[in-house]
Write a structure and sequence with these properties.
- By secondary structure, the chain is α/β, with parallel strands linked by helices.
- It contains ten helices and eleven strands.
- Helix 3 runs parallel beside helix 6, helix 5 crosses helix 6 and helix 6 runs parallel beside helix 7.
Length: about 250
Amino acid sequence: MSGDDILVTERLGKTFGGFAAVSDVNLKVRRGSIHALIGPNGAGKTTCFNMLTKFVAPSFGRILFNGRDITAMRPADVARLGLVRSFQISAIFPHLTALENVRIALQRQRGDNFDFWRSKKALRPLDARAMELLDQVGLADWARSVAVEFPYGRKRALEIATTLALDPEMLLLDEPMAGLGLEDIERIAALIRRAAASRTVLMVEHNLQVVAELSDRITVLTRGRVLAEGDYRAVSANQQVRQAYMGDGHGYG
């Protein structure tokens, strides 16, 4: 793999029984870029994403991260290498405050156990960094608020803060705009752009306007295979891509 590529797949595939959900996906994600994985419903995006983050074992092919074969690694071990994902459904502790949520992630990044039984005083050294992260995502004023009380867009911002607390080299985002209103979409897009200033981002996203505005490169999947790849202008002009979306009832442009 090229030194410019942080994540590479070689003929990656997954079968369920006799059904090939993903076949022969050769993906190259350039270091320091925002790379989008898109496609119509049922294209294999989620399965591919789950294989990259080791929540689904590939049936064949290889996954390389920073030149290291991670195909057989466990999700936790991959995360320790610096490849960290967020989920389409917000994954936070709802009955803890925003500050406590980020502090837990900082404990994990530090290598400690989750010290739920330790006093608040013992965990206080983590507060300054936790507040910095909350400020980055616009949640400093809600640091002491319980997460369950947050509107959906604020929960997504908190999830990004907890993900960034792990200090990932590469961030994988699963439908970061799902369920968000226009104002929240703009806010989360700005957060992703800032996060990408010092790391690589790979995202699965249905909002094509967001894909167009954020992505340096786009890979289009359909029926489990790569249909096209390139920047937004090249991909959106591809007649096969347009047909794949229109055939699924989606507009493209």
